[in-house]
Amino acid sequence: MKKRFVLILLLTLPVHTVVSQTGEQPHSIHWQEWEAHRHLPKMPSLFDSIGRDIEPLAMGKRQLLQRTVFGYLPDWQYKSARSFLQYDLLSHLAAFDFTVNSSGYIANPSYWPWTDVINAAHNEGVKVIMVAVNFNRDAIHTLLTDAGAKNNFFRQAKAKINQYKLDGINVDFEGLYSADRGSLLNNFMKDLTDYMHREVPGSEVSFAGPAVNWGGWDLAGLANSCDYIFIMGYAFYGSWSSTSGPGAPLTGGSYNITNTVTVQYAQVTENHPEKLILGVPYYGTRWQTADNRAYSSTVDYINHPRFVTAIKEGENYDLNWDGKSQTPWYAYQIGNDWYQVWFDSRYSLSLKYDLADTKNLRGVGMWALGYDLDRSDLWNELRVRYAPGTVPLLPDRPDGLIVRAAGEGDLILVDLNLPEFADGFYLYWAKDRQMFRDSLFFPGSRGYVTGLDKGELYFLKVRCVNSRSLSPYSAIMAATTTGSPRALI
Fold first, then answer.
1. Are residues 123 and 429 in contact, defined by beta-carbon separation less than 8 angstroms?
2. Do both 200 and 320 map to the same domain?
3. Where do transmembrane segments lie in this chain (predicted)?
């Protein structure tokens, strides 16, 4: 798909974050979004609460993926995401979150059990992983040091895995005391791994690890203590930042994704790359800024827009390409105030996947599934890279749409950039932007409507199609049978 970027090279402007100055690990997006949702009431399951309808993993199902693809699915995204999950592009689906208290008891996510998602995943050979969460350093310290709490947690986790036919556990403990991040944590993870491998044969144990070692971590030892680490390769900039900037810079500055893989996790990358999964963001960061320049001083943090929001907004503004970090961003103005959004696109994520592949890591993953909703861009990048030869569920949303009058005044011609994986498109038209008529199908990238009223204004939109499904609708364009062309870039 063709995209337009404004290339901006700021060779003298340093990329930095507030956290690098304080030496403290920032709150990850997992932590921030958990805080935002933890006070909401837990909703009951849409299925049998005991999980009697859950099917086990289809052991004979052959996956075509060439790498691990590990996606977190938060419970607040469960209902909206489940219709858009492409299970043939996942090896692991991590159910977030099973909150653990200081005594080792584990609470279920909202709507649990997700029987429809678990069964759909298992039928495709996708492993479903429970994500055990705690972000309180005192509670974590108790779990690491108190034998009763620790053993209760182990038993509880085993019971959850067996009851709901899950395939492993991912431990997401964050905010630990510096003194707890080394041998204490690693011994805990080794004990958990040994216990699970013994009690639940075939189960996997992993840890959600930091992108930067801000102190106390023995990351090589951590990798040895479990099956693999999911690197949270994001939150380099965030709500705490004094300037705008990329949440997941591939390059530039003192800390970036390349540094994470080759320096922070150097021993693991060199000796056991199969123990690392590079996590990438399906979200961005929005600030009010002093002006429209890259790395502008921030006035206020606004929010973390999800990919589906950021890409739609970015299509309405000029997307800038930051050459230092190799990520896109855009700026817009409301009144006298400037705002910026930095996020990752399909292209910038592909560069991160290049790094993971070049270093022969176990695979890649994302926070979070469902943050792209009906957009197929990010799925299609995974398909091209890790499942070549398969047909996607959805073609990309069409862009570059041009409509113009032609013929003898009763015809409108439509041209578009035919997206990857599309065989043709359906064209819809109306006079009022709402009552669109039955569609016409056109193979290729050009079509037309004939027999229209002369001198009338018409609204048109298209959907691309392949052998499996239809894309989302394009933006609506307008033209008259005698007007000049309008183009959407």
1. no
2. yes
3. none
* Chain segment 133-185, per-residue pLDDT in tens: 999 999 999 999 999 999 999 999 999 999 999 999 999 999 999 999 999 99
403 with 382, same domain?
Answer: no
Burial class (CB in 10 A: 0-12, 13-18, 19+), 161: buried
What's the CA gap between 441 and 180, in Å, rounded? 62
Q: Are residues 382 and 403 in the same domain?
A: no
Average pLDDT, the chain: 91
Q: Is residue 392 assigned to a domain?
A: no
Confidence bin at 24 (pLDDT 50/70/90): low
What is residue 482's three-state secondary structure?
coil
Partnered with residue 403 across adjacent β-strands are: 414, 486
Q: Encode 187-225: b = buried (16+ Cβ within 10 Å), e = exposed.
A: ebbbebbebbeeebeebbbbbbbbbbbbeebbbbbbbbb
Count H helices, E strands: the chain? 13, 22
Maximum Cα interatomic distance, the chain, rounded to a whole number of Å: 85
377 vs 320, 346, 419, CA distance in Å? 18, 6, 10
| CATH code at position 174 | 3.20.20.80
CATH of the domain at 421: 2.60.40.10
Residues 445 and 308 in one domain: no
Among the listed ranges 203-207, 215-219, 240-244, 449-453, which one has the minimum average pLDDT value? 449-453
Only one residue has tokens 């969460």, namely 133
Q: How far apart are CA 262 and CA 249, in angstroms?
A: 14
Confidence of residue 405 (pLDDT cuts 50, 70, 90): confident
Residue 37 belongs to domain spanning: 5-386
Number of domains making up the chain: 2
Sequential DSSP letters for 392-446: PSSPPPPEEEEEEEETTTTEEEEEEEPPTT--EEEEEEESSSS-PPPPEEEETTE
